[in-house]
């Protein structure tokens, strides 16, 4: 039997921890999943807030005190960043799905837009809401 | 001799017998959320920490209440289906089944609790 010619085949991205060099486009894509899951904490506390609001002033006062404490301010800040990152990352995937922006240079540029854009949008939101 | 075209004989014989409706749902719900979420953040961000009376007044108005309901329902279905793609990528067997059940259960519990609260506030 003839010796099989070895061909350099592309590896699955799911092997990346061991064999695959991390790339910006992969990391920014995984972060969409991470932020999407993290946002469920915001949904949970939104529901706590709504249920407290529905059950009356006493329950609401306690819940509001917690949800506006310093630790929760940090939490909401992180959630705001998550929602904006997920938002921009989702837009990037809509562009990819339309068959555009798939050249490496453009794809990486859009990845950086997600990273920096989410921080900018988070700070802008904080300014708009709290000032 | 076949009188059917190749296209006709191939139709419906894909391995899964179904197509991209899961992915299409993610696209549709993401566009819906992209339109709703910025306004909703503004409303909720202003209501949070404004005190009982002001928060109740905001959530009693039709627009904030309906928008909150829509963001919650569409958002949780988006989370459920999107999370399922992730679970199917990384897990197998019983762990996969249990995680899909947990994600689905969480999604519907959040929707039900939110709807209950919104209706009670509105009444």
UniProtKB/TrEMBL annotation, chain A:
Cofactor info, note text: The heme is bound between the two transmembrane subunits.
Task: Provide the topology term for how it sits in the membrane.
Answer: Multi-pass membrane protein
The record's section on Gene3D superfamilies has: Fumarate reductase/succinate dehydrogenase, transmembrane subunit (1.20.1300.10)
Write down a Pfam family by its short name. Answer: Sdh_cyt
Which Gene Ontology terms describe the biological processes this protein takes part in? Answer: tricarboxylic acid cycle
Cofactor(s) required for function per UniProt: heme
What are the transmembrane regions?
30-53, 65-89, 110-130
Q: Where in the cell is it found?
A: Membrane
Q: Which GO terms describe its cellular component?
A: membrane
Using the UniProt record, give the first listed, main subcellular location. Answer: membrane
InterPro entries recorded = SQR/QFR_C/D, Succ_DH_cyt_bsu_CS, Succ_DH_cytb556, SuccDH_FuR_B_TM-su
Q: Which UniProt keywords apply?
A: Heme, Iron, Membrane, Metal-binding, Transmembrane, Transmembrane helix
Please give the Gene Ontology molecular function terms for this protein.
electron transfer activity; metal ion binding
Q: Name the positions where heme binds.
A: 86
Q: Which CDD domains match?
A: SQR_TypeC_SdhC
Query: What is the annotated role of this protein in its UniProt record?
Result: Membrane-anchoring subunit of succinate dehydrogenase (SDH).
Assembly and oligomerization: Part of an enzyme complex containing four subunits: a flavoprotein, an iron-sulfur protein, plus two membrane-anchoring proteins, SdhC and SdhD. The complex can form homotrimers.
In the record, the note on similarity to other proteins reads: Belongs to the cytochrome b560 family.
**Designated name of the protein:** Succinate dehydrogenase cytochrome b556 subunit
Organism annotation: Salipiger aestuarii
From TrEMBL, chain B:
Biological process GO terms, please? Answer: tricarboxylic acid cycle
> Keywords, A to Z?
Electron transport, Heme, Iron, Membrane, Metal-binding, Transmembrane, Transmembrane helix, Transport, Tricarboxylic acid cycle
> Subcellular location, in the record's words?
Membrane
Query: Quick check: keyword Cell cycle in the entry?
Result: no
* Superkingdom classification of source: Bacteria
Q: One GO CC term of this entry?
A: membrane
- So which cofactors does this thing need? heme
Q: Give the Pfam families listed for this entry.
A: Sdh_cyt
Where primarily located?
Answer: membrane
Q: What does this protein do?
A: Membrane-anchoring subunit of succinate dehydrogenase (SDH).
State the name under which the record lists this protein.
Succinate dehydrogenase hydrophobic membrane anchor subunit
Q: Which organism is it from?
A: Salipiger aestuarii
């Amino acid at each position: 039997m003839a010796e099989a010619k070895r061909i350099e085949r592309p590896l699955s991205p799911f092997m990346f921890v061991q064999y695959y060099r991390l790339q910006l486009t992969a990391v920014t894509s995984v972060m969409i999943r991470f932020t999407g899951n993290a946002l469920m904490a915001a949904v949970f506390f939104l529901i706590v807030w709504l249920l407290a609001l529905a059950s009356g002033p006493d329950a609401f006062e306690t819940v509001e005190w917690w949800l506006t404490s310093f630790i929760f301010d940090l939490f909401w800040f992180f959630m705001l960043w998550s929602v904006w990152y997920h938002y921009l990352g989702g837009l990037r995937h809509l562009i990819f799905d339309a068959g555009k922006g798939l050249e490496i240079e453009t794809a990486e540029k859009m990845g950086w837009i997600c990273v920096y854009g989410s921080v900018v949008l988070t700070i802008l939101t904080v300014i708009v809401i709290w000032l | 001799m076949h009188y059917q075209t190749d296209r006709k004989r191939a139709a419906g014989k894909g391995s899964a017998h179904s197509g991209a409706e899961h992915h299409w749902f993610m696209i549709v719900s993401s566009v819906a959320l992209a339109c709703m979420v910025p306004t909703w953040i503004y409303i909720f961000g202003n209501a949070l920490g404004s005190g009982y009376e002001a928060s109740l007044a905001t959530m009693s108005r039709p627009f904030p209440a309906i928008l909150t309901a829509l963001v919650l329902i569409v958002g949780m279905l988006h989370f459920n289906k999107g999370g399922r793609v992730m679970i199917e990528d990384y897990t197998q067997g019983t762990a996969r089944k249990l995680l899909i059940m947990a994600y689905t259960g969480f999604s519907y519990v959040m929707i039900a609790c939110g709807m209950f609260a919104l209706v009670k506030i509105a009444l």
